[in-house]
Amino acid sequence: MTDSKPWWQSKTLWGAIVTLGSAGLGLAGLDVSDADREALIELLTSLGAAIGGLMAIFGRITAKNRIG
Q1: Three-state SS for 32?
Q2: In which domain, by residue range, is 54 found?
Q3: pLDDT 10s digits, 42-53
Q4: Where are the transmembrane segments (predicted)?
Q5: What confidence tens digit (pLDDT) does each residue in 17-42 have?
Q6: Quick check: is 22 in a domain?
Q7: Phi/psi of residue 32, each to 5°?
Q8: Domains in the chain: how many in total?
Q9: Which residues have a Cβ under 8 Å from the Cβ of 32 and sit 6 or more positions away?
Q10: Closest to 15 measured CA to CA, from 23, 3, 26, 5
């Protein structure tokens, strides 16, 4: 594994977060289906990528130095 990506684009990370959240909801008496978990992972991964893109645009607009 030589390629790298930002943490917010990792489906594994979001999957772990959703799994922990689902476990917490399960302890509270609420059930989250596998389909709901998968949809939430996809949503969070896409949202993370979108936020990362916005951060990159904002960073470039507010930068003090040119890219050289």
Answers
A1: coil
A2: 10-16+34-63
A3: 888 888 888 888
A4: 12-33, 39-58
A5: 888 988 888 889 888 888 988 898 88
A6: no
A7: -115, 120
A8: 1
A9: 21, 22, 25, 26
A10: 23
